[in-house]
Amino acid sequence: MEKLLAQKKMTPRWYERFPRAVPVGIFGLTMAVTLLSVFAIETAEDRRQTAMTAQTAQAVASGLERRSNANAAYLRSSAALFATQQMVEAPLFRTFIRQLHLDGRYVGSDGIGWAMKVYRDDIPTVEAIMRAGGTPDFAVHPQPEEARPFVVPVMFLEPDTDRNRRAIGFDMFSESMRRAAMKAAERTGQPTASGAVVLQQEGSPAGAPGFLVYMPVYTLGSEQAGRALRGFVYSPFNAQRFLESSIDVNHLGGAGVRLSDEDSAGRRVMAVIAPEQGSGQFVRRVIDIAGHRFILEIEAPATPMLSTMSVMSLLFGLLVATLLLVLARLLTQQAVEDRIALAWFEQQSSIRNSLTRELNHRVKNTLANVLSIISLTRRRATSLAEFADSLENRIRALSATHDLLTQSDWGTTPVEAVVRAELAPYAQDSQRHLQIGGPDVELAPNDALSLGLAIHELATNAAKYGALSVESGRVSVNWAMAGENVARIDWIERNGPPVDPTKRRKRGFGTELIEKIVAHELRNPVDLRFDPEGVHCSLLIPVRRRGDFSIRQGRS
């Protein structure tokens, strides 16, 4: 078996050589597959969003063209009626428009109007007729240029509102965009829309843009004589109202709409429905409104950075990758730990004899301390009972320190733990006044045993004769580093019974134990003084590194 283990150690497997890289590689590969899946999902989601935006664009374009076609039908019917009349008068015009039942339903337009072709010489006569017919402030404006033989002023515009009255008398042939549309309508004989203009109804050149749709009206005549243009029936449109009335905003799904006119001067935005949250992605459509090409742009609504399906896939992939990472890590870690265990077993086998020698040495030291305690106790005892009690208490002190060393696995032991263990019987009495303090200092096992014996003897002496024998007594145990590798511990008694000068010269068991055994074990002299105000003892204890006294090492 040992031979097989040795062979396994000599030929480590590939995953044992890379215990960290293997789990990380598996995790990275799994996450790469997950991210590729998320990319595919997001690509499909983008295509779906583009298709939905294109569908919205088609629906909006259809709505706009449907509204314009409905208006064109009204204009055709109006042109057909007016062509049969010798004169389009106000009563006839208003009666016909009202019979169309368009009140409140002008499909986004400002109504239907009549613009008559008037030759330059007939302008005064037409103005007089219009003023006599109920429009007292009618006047053709602006005045035509000398080279232009006729004008096309607005004669009537229904519904008759304050807004529409602003356009009455305006010569539409005087403005280039309107003039081009009227000429195209005269040439084709079909409803024709102008480009982007500011309607006279806006009352300001800086008003909201719109457009107009013209339908020519001819005089009836023979094919040989040809047809003469009498004027135009037309509809003015405010672009924003036309756009809003042609589509259902609730069906846009948060998308934005922009209607523009594009000519040689560039693109001009005429109407906008802002998106709930813009994405910057547009679908562009060219729509035909009464023979004029307008640009329709649909802005797709903003979408989350990742779709729900992508988030779920990412979380699932992360979970799977993490599980594989943990599993691979456990397997490689187990292989590494097996190898460490083999090395540890070999180390334990090599230090078994050293550990036995260490145990023998420490047992001998402990027995030597016990024999010294017995010898000194026997010489100072006056009776068997006194001998037994003194010996028992000192052995218990030695045992208490042994318990601390056992808890630390015979490693370093804090000075504070040794002091508190020896003074525990006195600290439980509320009438005892103890003060213990100092920095964190760790002691070697043998040094901790020696300190425990010294503290026990000092405490026993103080309880019998010193500061711990009266309620007013004070005992302070303080320690500090006296050098790089030496700690100084001071035992100071105050407010106890006065020390008898004759007893200061009498050396008891505690004095000999501290000055001989403890000083010998600590390899430093002990300063023990019986001052009149109380006992003062100073001990110097070496502070050694663990490697100086420990031969057992943990697993690396």
TrEMBL record:
The keyword Transmembrane applies. SMART domains: CHASE, HWE_HK. It is an enzyme of class 2 (transferase). Its main location: membrane. The chain crosses the membrane at residues 21-41, 311-331. Gene3D superfamilies: CHASE domain, Histidine kinase-like ATPase, C-terminal domain. Residues 84-252 form the CHASE domain. It is found in: Membrane. It catalyses: ATP + protein L-histidine = ADP + protein N-phospho-L-histidine. It comes from the Bacteria. The keyword Transferase applies. InterPro entries: CHASE_dom, CHASE_sf, HATPase_C_sf, Sig_transdc_His_kinase_HWE. Keywords: ATP-binding, Kinase, Membrane, Nucleotide-binding, Phosphoprotein, Transferase, Transmembrane, Transmembrane helix. This is histidine kinase. It comes from Novosphingobium jiangmenense.
